[in-house]
Every structure is written in C-alpha cells, then in structure tokens.
Amino acid sequence: MKIKLILPLFVFCYLLIGVFSGNAVAQNKYNWKEVVTGKYKYRYVTNDVQNVRFYTLQNGLQVILHVDKKEPRVIYKMVVRTGSNNDPAEHTGLAHYLEHLLFKGTDKYGTLNWEKEKPYLSHIEELYEAYNHTTNESERKVIYRQIDSISGIASKYAIANEYTNIMKEMGSQGTNAHTEFDATVYDENVPAGALDKLLQVQAERFRNPIFRLFHTELEAVYEEKNKGLDGDDFRMFETVNSTLYPNSNYGQQTTIGTIEHLKNPSLKAIKQFYDTYYVPNNMGLILSGDFNADEIIQKIDQYFSYMRPGKLTAFLQAIEPDFATPVVKEITSPTPEVGVLAFRIPFKGTNSKDELLVNLLSQLCSNGKAGLFDIDINMPQKMQMAGIELLGTYQKYITLLGVAMPKTGQTTDQALDLLWQEIKKVKNGDFDEKLLTAIKNNIELEVSMSKRNNIATLMTLERGFIADRCQTWNNEASFLEILNAVTKQELVDYANRVFTGNYVCVYKRKGKSTNTAKIVKPKITPITINKTDRSAFSKNLDAIPVPATKPVWLNFDKAISHSKINNARFLYTTNKENGFFELQYRFDMGSWNSNLLPVAVNYLSLLGTDKYSAEDLNKEFYQLACEYSIRVSDKSTAIVVSGIQKNFDKAVALLEHLLANCKPTAESLNKLKEKLKKERIDAKISKEALMKGLVSYAVYGAKNPFSQAGSLQPDQLDAPALVNLLHQLTRYKHLITYYGPESLQTITQKIKSSHQMPSSFTSIPAPAVNFQPRILEENEVYAADFDMLQTQIQWVRNMPGYQPSLQANVNLYNNYFGDGMGSVVFQQLRESKALAYSTSATFQAPAYKNDYYRMTAFIGCQADKMDEAINGMDSLLNDLPRSDDGIQNAKRSVRKSLETQRFTDEKVVDFYLLLEKKGLSTDFRQQIYESLEALNYNDLKAFADKYIAHKKYAYCIIGSKDVLEGADLKKYGNVKKLTPEEVFGY
Questions:
Q1: Sheet with strand 780-785: strands edge to edge
Q2: DSSP 731-763
Q3: Closest to 72 (Cα-Cα) out of 166, 173, 202, 201
Q4: Is the dihedral of CA 605, 611, 615, 618 positive or negative?
C-alpha cells in the first residue's frame, strides 16, 4: 500500500493512449466496432494487436479485458476515479486512509463474529469523532486511552489480514494498492485457475467494507508520513506542486495529508467519502492474462451487479494564474544540492497532441543517451547531472521538470544556466533532425518491447481509464503512424509555447533539514490478530473449484543450444516474437578481481576512439536504436549490446571498435576524477549508501568490499592502466549468449566475424582480495548518525554450507515469516503492534555454491519506537510463531508460484547460468516443488532453530545523533559507532 507521487509520462506504454483523435490513419484502419455476444455488448478497435475489449455493465461499471496467454496468470486492477483531489479540505489524507482500510474486510470476512464486533466499532467511531473535535490535550489523552482500550476488545473479534491470507492462499503475487491525486488502484496477480475465486472476493470486498483495526493502521500511515518527510523527492514534489498549482488541490493538498489531519481522523468522513465515490459508474475493472473473455464477463456481471450507481460531481481543476516573473522557492537538506525548473504546461485534452509532443520534447532534451542534455552537458561533464522529468497528467496541465545537479565548485545557478542554454537550442530549432528520427525509432523499439508482457498494456489501460480516455484506444493502435507524422517544426513551435517565463525554480540547498515536524508515538496496546482463525466466508471459498495448473520445468537441452565460437562457449535462444536481440559477453571476474574494473567501465563512457568522439558514439548507437552497457559485480562482468536485429552488425562492430580503440586523454581523465570525487561526497550524505556500508562492515568486517572500493583515490588513477584493462577485457575467458530472431547458424557466423578474441584466452586474475563473510561470536551493533526523523535497523547473520536440498525450507520460511503483507513479521510488528510502515525478513541463499547464506531483517520506525521495534523483531527471530493455517497458506502460495512461473525470452539463459553458479545442471524448482508438500511447522521450526533462532546478529542502525546518543544500544551487543570515514573508506 503506497502513495503514488510521480507518474512518469515518458514510459512509452503511457504514450500510447489519448494522443489525439480525428486522424486519417485511425479513421481508415483503426476504427471502433461493436459486438454482441449473448447479452453482453463490447467495443473494440479494428487491427488492434492487443485485442482489448471494452464493456460497460448496466450499473455503469466499466470492464476492460485483455487476453494474454503467455503464462497461466491473470493481473487484476480495480481502478476508482477518486484520490486526494477529492479529500475534504478539513480531512486531507482521507482517500489514502480509505485505501488502507479496504484491506480490513467486510461484515462477512475479517471477523469472527460481526454482531459482537459491531457495537465496539460503533463506539470507536463515536470516540474518534469526539477526539477530532477536542482540542484540550488532557481530554484528548483520556479519549485516546478509551480508543486504545476498546480497540483491544474489538480486535478479539477481528481476523487481521484475512484478506491478505485469502489472496496468499490463491497464490497472488501482487497484493497491493496505491493512492494518487485522481485515482485509487487495487492490484492482484493470481493464477488463472483462481480467477473465479478472485472475482468473488473482490466483489465482496467492495460490498460493505468495515473499518476495523483502525488505530493501528492509522499508526502505519503515521510511519508512512514520517518516511516521506525524510525523503527529499517528497519535499521537492510538494514544493513544486504547491507553487505551480495555487488554486487547486494538486498543489494545496497532499495525498498523505497534513500531520494535523492525520492526528484527527474521522471514520464518519471516510464512510461518506466511500459512499460518494466508490460507486460502479466511477470504477473500472481491468483484467489481463489467461482467461476466456466471454465467460469472464458473465462472472463479473454476476458478482458485481449488486452495485448501484451514484450521483457524481465532476472534479474540475481550477485555472491557474500565470506568473508575472519566475517564482523561486528553497528547501534545505543534508543531501546534495539540486536545482529544478518546473513548467506548468496547458493540456488541451484528447483532441490535441499535447501528451505526444511533451514526451518528444522531453526525449529531445534528455533520453539518457543522445538528447541535448546528454550530449552537451552530461557527456562533457559540464555539471554532475542534468535531466528532465514529467509528472502526472492533471486535468488541464502537465508538469515538466528540468533537473540540474551541480558539480564540485559549481553553483546551482551556474548549472541551471546550462539547462537554459540547451532549452534555447530547442526553441531555436538548433538541433539535427536526425535526432528526432532516432527518437522515433527508439520509441518504436520500446513500444515493440513493451508488448512482450501485459504490464505495459495494463499501465496504458489504467492511465486511460483514470483520465476517462479509453474511448481513444483507436489512437493507441495507430500510435506509430501518428508519431512518425510529427515534424521538427511542429516540435519547435511547441517548445516555444512551453518554455516561457511562466515557471517555478526550486533550489534544494545544502544544510540541516528544516523539516523537523514529526508525529510522536501514541501509547498503543498490542492488539489480538487471530491469525489462525478463518471466517465462514473464507471457509466457503474452499468449495470453489480451482483447475490445477501443471508446472512446467525447463529442459535446458531443448531450451538452449550449446556450441562454441572460436574458443568461447556459446549459448543460443531464439526470439520468435519480434526483431529484438541481446548479445552478451559474460566473464567470471569482477570488482574483487580488480577494483579498477568498475572505474575503467565508468571511464569508458567518457572516451572516444580514432574515428569517433564519445558524444558521436552515443549518437551512433542511438540512431541505430541499439545500446550497450557493461555491468560489473563483485565476481562477474557482462558486456551487453541490444536493440533492433536489422542493425546487429553495425551495433556490434561499433562496440568492438570502442573496446579495442578507446583512447585516453588528459581531459577525459580529469573529468573522471572530478566525477568520482563528487560521487564520493554525495555518497557520504546518502542514508541509503550509509546503510549499505554498515551492512558490508557487519558482513565482512572493517576490510570489506564497500570501504575497499572507497579506498581507491581518484587522484591516483592512471589513464593508460584503465584503458589497457578495457582493451584487454575480451582477451579474458568468457562465454557468449545470444537471444534474438536470427538463426543459430547465421548468428554464429556473424559473431565469429565481428567479435575479436585471441587464439587462447588470458587467465582471469585471482581475486585481489577474497572477502570472507564473518561468523559472529557475539552480538554486535554498528551505528551511524544521519539527520532523519525515522530510525532504520537491519539485522545481519552469515552462515556457511550451501545445500540445494534446503531450498524448499528456505522458500517456505521466507513466504511464511517475512515476505509480504501476510507474513508473520508484517502482521506482528505492523498490524498488531503498529511499530512500522515497512518491515521484512529474508533468509538469502548464496549466488555461488561456495558462498554463505545470509539472514537479514529490516524495520524502519519512528525514533521513539526503536527499542520496542528491536525487541519485537528479536522475539520473532528467536521463537517462530505457530500457525498451521499460515503454514498451509504459505505452502500453497509457493507451490502456485512455481506452477505458474514461466521462463521465457533471454531469462532462460540467465536462469541456467544462475543454477550453474550453484553447481546445478537441471531445473531445481522441481525438487523444491515436490519437497514442499511434506513440510510442516515442525520442519520449519527445526530449520529456524538451527539457522536463525538465538543466534548472533549484527544490528546495523542509522538515525539522528540525538536518538542514537540517548539509546542504550549496548544491551543489544558490543557497540561500535562508525564514522563516515570508517564506513566509506575515505
């Protein structure tokens, strides 16, 4: 459950809908047709390769069906066209509250005895109304104690997370929801055989939701608020919106709500909101996956026909005023400085090209490869980073952000001036038309690639329904024709309408965060969660037949063709869907073999050859609709080139030329040093990097991969050594993999002629440092200060002795104990004790057969909950709670996941090589699947006792200095307070 703040329009699947209507291509080729099957009428678009059907039931519920039989699963979305825009001004955050409460059940499920539970919930509702209208703090505390006390009694009749348990039993992999300005979306991803059962549960879910277990769920929302207050993106987003949209809720209300409103909720207001907006004529049910559309529409009508339409008042966004001069705002933060130019662009609706043009405009400025920002600013490193982002489409406007991160010694204003220079080029048409053609070609590739899975189609349909633009699906089908008709002059004219003086400039200045507001922990008595009980409704679901899905295990001998190209192993898989290819050179060497390797790869992006500059190389790859990357991990490296098969020869030749002929220059080395120095400075003020460093310290000790990488001094780098490493890279032993449409025989010859290899490989250098995970003899605490409202704790423990036969226990333990909303950790620490918004635990299997297992656990909580959170997690780790129903649910969930899992495309080779690293040659999922059935709680308890319970752990803790200094950390283990220099190695 989450708030969705930024909706990136540059995702190409989102480009596909509502581009503009009335074009000749759509009228001639992509036309709306109407079909009646039985008593159901649906609309579709001719020549639509997705074959999407659009229904409207008699009660107004819109149903959108997309059949995709690539795997035996179905993705479900219920989209409600209401979000924080509709929050009452005196109850901001209400729509998001409601999203959380829609997981709590109805009068039929989520309860052991509704008649006995009901009066307590009514009393709690009245108490919250009194609490909401009381300002005297002493009186408020008395009321809250009553709420806490009666909630404890009511919880004895509640079945916490029964909805999640039902979904888990079905084998759902996507139980979640999110709230945004204009919509609330509920998600599931279930095996195809469970679709009938899913629809019955979802119909019941919206029939009569009961807002039980409210005060603990409210505490989870508090945690989510505090987490957002710690996030600079959240604060920048709020600042931009509040300034650009002074007249509407997009700027004047936040989705999560104000602290004052969070502390004073009204259950009556939430119910009124639900009754107003959760009506069928304001809701869209979207399915994509393996099903029979004619059968499923009957089921949907049968289960959802009870809904009655409501009277809706359309939300109309206010007209926003133009600014006489640019408006400047500032926030402060300990993280790196950033400058943002925010443009509010009028959006004329479905009869215009606005979305298409603004996306093309953003790609022209920055596409990560060959945009003007990329070539003119990022490649020559005129600043640390320049980019562009698009925020969600509002009813009348689109927001475009130019982002500038200054480099060391550069002011934010100087960085923003560089953005303006490139923007002026766009406005003057001072760019090669070939760039626009290349952008179109790359979009075409992305569109083709997006249709390999149903996620992209679902995203498009979801966004279209929210904006009430599914009626323009004919333009999705004709999108490429419309795209290719856009001219350079059209884009230049649009840029001149967009880039005016009517903008906001936001500076994120370096300094102590001024955002000190926080929500103080109320006294909450842990509630009963009745995790082992089931309602009659849940038990009745067992009678619904679910067709068995037969698992499909990979036969690698059939799925992969093995051969040799010169002296390298070659693994081939065919792409029968489209013209996309991916070629990889994979090495069993990485940063542990040479800490210069990741630096050399970083350096490569700055280098040219005797034929091309670095900028020209980026342009060449982009114009080919191809790209390359080099991925370096601790023990492996992969050189990857991918794109359109018709350009395979040119793309591979270009990559080979670059690797063999890249040339160092004094200028490029200075750029690299400057870049690395800035990255090192920025890392020290990142809480994510700090936690990563603490964990590495805990796993390996003071001499660890994280700090070792930091010990490499930029000023000591030698350009010839870095370039020589790149030149020699393909001389080391490696294997080659190809996924694409070309035949094995043809592609083998092409790779032989293009890929430069020696007659015999150079031996891979032994690891420079062979880092060994530590086995702890005592509990240890590693703590580091960071200016933040929350406190984050991560548990770490290493264990040697990889055993493939143990994997069934590992999968079951993770699913039962720490993975997802139905897990023990989530239910106990969030649902019962309200200690966190996010918490999890995982027993991680090693990537290589000689590596170690690792047990990790995490919780992010308010600072004043730290001791309680640590004790709560410790208790669960040491004594695995018993729920036989929970074990059975977890077992079904794992089995159904394996039954419906399908490895396709290039993932087949990835999976094969992953198993090979573990010393396995066959698909070991079959062994896991067959072993699961016999496992029970006693087996899991024995597993936990042997590897997890009452063992020695390292506690990695980051939080504010005041919190850590005031805490008695030594009671958890030997304490080491780490300085940034000790963590980062510099």
A1: 838-844, 853-862, 790-799, 954-959, 780-785, 974-977
A2: GB-EEEEEEESS-HHHHHHHHHHHS---SSPBP
A3: 173
A4: negative
- Domain range holding 889? 789-959
CB-based contact 834:734 (threshold 8 Å): no
Shared domain for 744 and 793, answered yes or no, is: no
Distance, in Å, from the CA atom of 846 to the CA atom of 243, rounded to the nearest integer, reads 49
User: Which tokens sit at 656?
Assistant: 């080979």
Residue 674 resides in a domain: yes
Compute the distance between CA of residue 268 and CA of residue 121 in angstroms, rounded to an integer: 12
Structure confidence at residue 21 as a pLDDT band (50, 70, 90): very low
Question: Are residues 716 and 839 located together in one domain of the fold?
Answer: no
283-289 and 73-80 beta bridge pairing: antiparallel
Average pLDDT over residues 229-246: 85
Q: Is the same domain home to 738 and 816?
A: no
Q: Strand 73-80 to strand 327-333: parallel, antiparallel, or no bridges (unpaired)?
A: unpaired
What is the C-alpha separation between 451 and 288, in angstroms, rounded? 12
* Residue tagged 């009938």 (tokens): 196
The count of structural domains within the chain is: 2
On whether the CB atoms of residues 277 and 80 are closer than 8 A, the answer is yes
Which CATH number covers residue 896? 3.30.830.10
Sheet of 503-510, strands arranged across: 327-333, 503-510, 338-346, 397-405, 385-391
Instruction: Strand 568-574: give its sheet, edge to edge.
Output: 561-565, 568-574, 734-740, 580-587, 637-644, 626-632
Residues 749 and 803 in one domain: no
Residue 184 identity (one-letter amino acid): T
Distances (CA, A) of 96 to 93, 164, 273: 5, 18, 11
Alpha carbon distance 919, 930 (integer Å): 20
Q: How far is CA 625 from CA 711, 754, 770, in A?
A: 38, 19, 40
Burial class of 107 by CB neighbour count within 10 A (0 to 12, 13 to 18, 19+): middle
Strands 32-37 and 40-45: antiparallel
H helix and E strand count, the chain: 40, 26
| Per-residue pLDDT tens digits for 623-660 | 999 999 999 999 999 999 999 999 999 999 999 999 99
Contact present, 51 and 58 (Cβ < 8 Å): no
Which residue, 623, 645, 651, is CA-closest to 577? 645
583 and 727 co-located in one domain: yes
In a domain, 696, yes or no: yes
What are the strands, taking DSSP E only, across 70-183? 73-80, 176-179
Q: Output phi, psi for 910, to 5 deg.
A: -60, -45
Q: Look at residue 229 in the predicted model and tell me its pLDDT.
A: 67
880 and 734 inside one domain? no
- Dump pLDDT digits (tens) for 876-914: 999 999 999 899 999 999 999 999 999 877 799 999 999
Position 759: which residue type? S
pLDDT(556) > 90: yes
Mean pLDDT of the chain: 91
Query: What beta strand segments (E) does 663-728 contain?
Result: none
Angle of helix 293-304 relative to helix 195-205, nearest 10 degrees? 30
Question: How far is the C-alpha of 693 from the C-alpha of 689, rounded, in Å?
Answer: 6
Q: Is the same domain home to 794 and 718?
A: no
How far is it, in rounded angstroms, from Cα 272 to Cα 464? Answer: 27
- Residues whose CB falls within 8 Å of the CB of residue 522, separated by 6 or more in sequence, listed in order: 144, 148, 219
